[in-house]
Amino acid sequence: MSATYSIIIADDHAMFLDGLTSILSEEKSIKIILTAKTGTQVLKYLRINKDEKIDLVITDINMPEMDGVALNQAIKFEFPQIKTLVVSMLEEAKKIKQLTEANANGYISKNAEKTELLNAITNILEGDNYFSPRIKQVLMEAMFSEKSSPEIALTKRETEVLKLIAQEFTTQEIADQLFLSKHTIESYRKNLISKLGVRNLAGLTRYAVEKGLLA
Amino acid sequence: MSATYSIIIADDHAMFLDGLTSILSEEKSIKIILTAKTGTQVLKYLRINKDEKIDLVITDINMPEMDGVALNQAIKFEFPQIKTLVVSMLEEAKKIKQLTEANANGYISKNAEKTELLNAITNILEGDNYFSPRIKQVLMEAMFSEKSSPEIALTKRETEVLKLIAQEFTTQEIADQLFLSKHTIESYRKNLISKLGVRNLAGLTRYAVEKGLLA
DNA sequence: TTTTATATCACGGAAATCGGTGATAAAAGA
DNA sequence: TCTTTTATCACCGATTTCCGTGATATAAAA
């Protein structure tokens, strides 16, 4: 890295943000332009300072207001020349997939060593992408498992009924709430059971909980 | 802080560890003796270097092998003169309570600002304890809520049955598995429903999932 | 030692779920 | 336009759950 690069860091954990800043401020070739706690702050800055040359935005996934995925999409749409590196605790295949689809240039875990972080940054600034081996593996597994277990798509109504079922309402009560026949709800219940491959109410409830339908 | 203090930092997230190290190495009065990724590494070091004066151990809660709570207990038992500061993402009342019972000298969130971190360290090194306002609040709430909603204690058998219920087994199947009468399992089911204040199988399942009985 | 908690079993009836096999109309997609 | 999906409703029988009201023996606690 011979030239000087301008970067922005976004993370809602102040201490991690400070830590990252501290680590990177040791690098002479890196100039930290801004540190932010939300994606919106970053976007706001970029829009106001359109002419400033920013090379890289380092971001977490979990942030209030606007999360890492949305921030990535926005940056790549409005400022496609800016590279992005996601640094997160999460190793959820879904999120990682969303990020690759949003054209993030790299993804490393917060578990990563300092050297890997610097390595990732160097790679990205030089035009390559960087995804840690572990992340690549998660992505691969996700792609395979996706084929073996095709996404179970529930309709709006099915989701609605499932939610109520998991909330301990009986068929009759759900029918009353939705102004539908008891038989209709029974149909949904049966369809859900066979669609989701579960045996009973317990299975439906677990599915609902795991998919975060209750909150 | 006039004198020089010797501290040890333990956190399994390398980047956070690096960040923290980086922040603290700016402080002239602080000398970082060791950084470790597990509690056992810290203890091993302390045992070998019995005569070295260590003032403070900064630790995360979630670590492999030996977590922050266990590390705290061990340190306070074997090296009671060493102060401890817990820096964690978690704000679970249970963990925090355990830590206060293990005589940790301070607890701050990873969301805390750098200034709060330094403030906490200074306080602790000077002999005070430091718990951030947010943490104090969580502790208070926990103490109150404990009285208002007494812990629902399930017996071994009840837990066992509940687990199987949530795993979609019918009463008869559970009875067969545990070599008990179908009536017995029915009793457990009824007791569980009234004990946990839920209405049906869905409620039982949700409770089981939320308590992490399935894994 | 007396009381309480735990673990076990039993009956009966009402209510709900489960499983199969339908139908119809409207909306969406090819 | 034709086909598929979605949303709705219906019947029936078997199984399961839910609810109340019990009992007994043993272990733990007061």
Automatic annotation (TrEMBL), chains A, B:
Pfam families: GerE, Response_reg. Keywords: DNA-binding, Phosphoprotein. GO terms for molecular function: DNA binding. Residues 147-212 form the HTH luxR-type domain. Signal peptide: none annotated. Residues 6-125 form the Response regulatory domain. The keyword Lipid biosynthesis does not apply. The modification 4-aspartylphosphate is found at D60. SUPFAM superfamilies: C-terminal effector domain of the bipartite response regulators, CheY-like. One of its GO terms (biological process) is phosphorelay signal transduction system. This is LuxR family two component transcriptional regulator. It comes from Winogradskyella arenosi.
